[in-house]
Design goal:
about 280 residues; mainly alpha; Alpha-Beta Plaits; 2 domains; three-stranded antiparallel beta sheet; globular
Length: about 280
């Protein structure tokens, strides 16, 4: 029996928090640092590309180790998509918890993403860094603040204030931070949009069962059924898709699949396949 993607994703995020705590205590030496800049196994650098660029512009220096880490993260995003947002980011798990406390927004009322806004915010931070001011995104990002507080016990008051404001805003308007404001997502989203790891749709059964569960359960607020299943697109190419697999878990007909290719759809044939098509057409 397959482990649900949602369970695997939350376990991954919890494991990352544990690594932050272990790094703080100095145990095991697996991971040291934060979401901004870190070392894996004491040797492999990892860095957030947006933060690396901002810090380099502000300091007028381009450290090789920092940019090696940013390059590795960028390559991982090109291959896997913006998985940091769904599988690693500690803030995203808190935001999901807040959204679960309020009534789910009906699929027809889901706000469309506005990537222009978060890109403009990123450009503002970079412009501020360019004129010689402190790297404000690195200092004030709720994602980095949260990881610093967990990893080193730093900026706890600032973290509570900033994160609290983001959580309240999320309760009032779901998906506000991830869709419209997050500078990190402004990099990871476009960079990983066409990554080989994708949510594929079965071209034969997509759009036949209009239950809307894929849209309802999407943590990013993507109208999966309306924009992709009903239009029978081959895969979800929205830059907000974090490859979290929630839509795959929610689909009662197995229309969606998270994988590196779509060949499993072509390989399925025979009586079981015909039965699935009939059930999809009848809506059962």
């Amino acid at each position: 029996m397959r482990v649900p993607w949602t369970l695997a994703r939350r376990s991954s995020a919890l494991a990352f928090v544990c690594l932050l705590v272990l790094g703080r205590s100095g145990l095991m030496g697996i991971f040291q640092g934060t979401t901004a800049n870190s070392l894996l196994f004491g040797r492999l650098p990892l860095a957030d590309p947006a933060t690396a660029l901002e810090v380099s512009l502000a300091s007028d220096s381009w450290p090789k180790t920092l940019w090696l880490g940013a390059g590795l993260v960028a390559l991982a995003t090109l291959a896997l998509g913006p998985v940091f947002c769904g599988w690693v980011c500690p803030l995203s798990q808190l935001l999901e918890g807040v959204r679960s406390l309020r009534r789910r927004t009906p699929p027809s009322r889901q706000a469309s993403s506005n990537p222009v806004t978060r890109r403009a915010i990123l450009l503002c931070f970079l412009a501020i860094a360019l004129v010689g001011v402190l790297p404000l995104h690195a200092a004030l990002s709720p994602v980095h603040c949260l990881s610093r507080s967990i990893a080193a016990g730093l900026d706890i008051t600032i973290t509570i204030t900033i994160t609290g404001c983001v959580l309240v805003a999320e309760f009032i308007r779901p998906h506000l931070w991830c869709k419209h404001l997050c500078p990190m997502g402004a990099v990871y989203g476009p960079l990983g949009r066409r990554a080989p790891l994708r949510v594929h749709l079965d071209p034969q059964t997509a759009g036949r069962t209009l239950c809307g569960l894929c849209t309802t359960h999407c943590p990013a607020g993507i109208p999966v059924m309306e924009r992709f299943a009903q239009e029978r697109r081959p895969w979800i190419d929205d830059e907000l898709c974090t490859r979290c697999g929630a839509c795959v878990d929610a689909c009662p007909k197995g229309v969606l699949r998270l994988s590196f290719n779509s060949t499993p759809w072509r390989q399925r044939s025979g009586p079981s396949r015909a039965k699935e098509l009939v059930e999809g057409c009848s809506g059962h």
